[in-house]
Amino acid sequence: MTVLDVAWAERWMHAAAADVRDARDELTELDRRIGDGDHGVNMDRGLSAVVERLDDPAQAPRETVGQVLRLAATTMMSTVGGAAGPLYGTALLRASKVTDRADLPSSGVVALVEAALEGIVARGRATVGEKTMVDAWQPAAEAAEQAEDAEDGIDVLRAAAAAAASGAEATIPLVATKGRASYLAERSAGTQDPGARSTAIILAAAVAAAEGRGA
Q1: In Å, what is the CA distance from 114 to each residue of 20, 29, 63?
Q2: Which residues 6+ apart lie within 8 Å of 143 measured at CB?
Q3: Distance, CA of 55 to CA of 53 (rounded, Å)
Q4: DSSP H helical segments within 125-214, as ranges?
Q5: Which chain regions cross the lipid bilayer (predicted)?
Q6: From residue 85, how far is each of 60, 110, 142 by CA, in Å?
Q7: Fewer CB within 10 Å of terminal CB in the chain, N or C?
Q8: Domain of residue 169, residue span
Q9: Helix 65-79 to helix 84-97 angle, to the nearest 10 degrees?
Q10: Quick check: 34 and 191 in contact, CB under 8 A?
Q11: C-beta of residue 11 within 8 angstroms of C-beta of residue 72
């Protein structure tokens, strides 16, 4: 059985930082089409800062998954510009409150994903179909809940990540009705939402970290 513990959470943040850096130009281009054009740069900066703090020997050792997520949350809030910093920061902060334990069972992974979604909805006031990162997080949470009976938490992660990827793809034909992209109205259709895309990348990194792949 895969152990989703503090070491996994730290690998997840490292993998997410590396994968977002690889996708920085893609995310920037998506955001250039329907937003401010800075999503890739901002997410790269924020996650790189998270890794720097995790690797800082002066930091106290993390004893729970929640402590790792809390560190990531506060770092993202203080280093990421635009809407992404508050949204991801709130998502991770909410998730940290339900994962304050040394390792996560399947139900703990479900709680993590659901809490992250709740944080994003509370902060951004968005719903499914408005062409935002909620369109990736909502199906991820639903898929995680459906997989909760799996014996291994990694199966819940895989279900959530796959659903997030499909949800992100499904934003391409949508017309944005929330955020800066909504100013483009019909012209926003045809471009994948950058926040939904970064969500898919970050959840895929969680799977890679659990499988021993990634950074």
Answers
A1: 22, 29, 22
A2: 159, 160, 162, 163
A3: 5
A4: 134-146, 153-169, 194-210
A5: none
A6: 24, 23, 24
A7: N
A8: 4-210
A9: 160
A10: yes
A11: no
Residue 79 lies in a domain: yes
Cα 151 to Cα 38: distance, rounded to the nearest angstrom? 40
Answer whether 179's CB lies under 8 Å from 35's CB. Answer: yes
Structure tokens at 98: 């339900």
Regions in the chain scoring below 50 on pLDDT = none
Residues with Cβ within 8 Å of residue 209, at least 6 apart in sequence: 8, 11, 12, 14, 15
Measured in degrees and rounded to the nearest 5, phi and psi for residue 5 equal -115, -165
Domain count, the chain: 1
Q: Is the residue at 151 inside a domain?
A: yes
Which of 139, 136, 140 lies closest to 195, judged by CA? 136
pLDDT value of residue 62: 95
Cα–Cα distances in angstroms (integers) from residue 49 to residues 44, 67, 73, 186, in the given order: 8, 16, 11, 36
Taking residue 149's Cβ as centre, other Cβ atoms within 10 Å add up to 10
Is residue 215, in this structure, part of any structural domain at all? no
Tell me, what CATH number does 19's domain have?
1.25.40.340
Return mean pLDDT, the chain. 94
What is residue 178's predicted lDDT score, i.e. its pLDDT? Answer: 62
